Amino acid sequence: MSEETRIVTAERLVRAEPEAIFELIADPALQPSWDGNDNLAEAPAGQRVTGVGQTFTMELTVGGTRENPVVEFEEGRRIAWKPSPLGEEPFGHLWRWELEPGAEPGVTLVRHTYDWSGLPGTAEPKRIARARGTTAEKLQASVDRLAAAAESAEGAR
After folding, report:
1. pLDDT mean over 6-32
2. Which of 10, 39, 55, 153 lies at a C-alpha separation of 20 to 30 Å from 29?
3. pLDDT tier for residue 39 given thresholds of 50, 70 and 90
4. Element holding 107 (H helix, E strand)
5. Measured between alpha carbons, how far is 2 from 4 in angstroms, rounded to an integer?
6. pLDDT at 157 over 60
7. Is 89 buried (19+), middle (13-18) or exposed (0-12) by CB count in 10 A?
8. pTM score, two decimals?
């Protein structure tokens, strides 16, 4: 029996500066507009992330609110969080975004990772099924929608 892959990644080059792309990610109120999983309904304004240790909240399309403690942060380059129900410990999965300046000016490599390796095997079956259902194609949809939003904003400048 082979080991199940619990880290899924998608990436692409985006014709926008890293700082402009990062702004779309680090402001949770903007995330639902480009979410490729169609999982995010809305987030209250004024939660722009600026460092590790912050927590932002997000309303889900299926109902419910998630707290998202930020566990990795480098302005303009990297952000990651571990979602949980309000007032509870994180489930054991992590969402990460990494941005790298491209070889030419105005181009950025955007990498999106979903890591559910910390989700215990004893987690409820419904949660495991949802984790397995978060495929590279779904991550790519988010990356592509984010790219379209960032490139549109860059073109408007």
Report:
1. 97
2. 10
3. confident
4. none
5. 6
6. no
7. exposed
8. 0.92
Give CA separation, 121 vs 39, 117, 125, 130, 134, in Å.
Answer: 23, 10, 9, 13, 17
Candidates 84, 115, 82, 86; CA nearest to 5 is: 115
Domains of the chain: 7-156 (3.30.530.20)
Residue that is written with structure tokens 């809305």 in the block: 42
Of 99, 129, 127, 97, the C-alpha closest to 114 is 97
Cβ burial, residue 124 (10 Å; 0-12/13-18/19+): exposed
Q: What is the mean pLDDT of residues 85-110?
A: 94
Cα distances (angstroms) measured from residue 103 to each of 17, 98, 142: 12, 16, 23
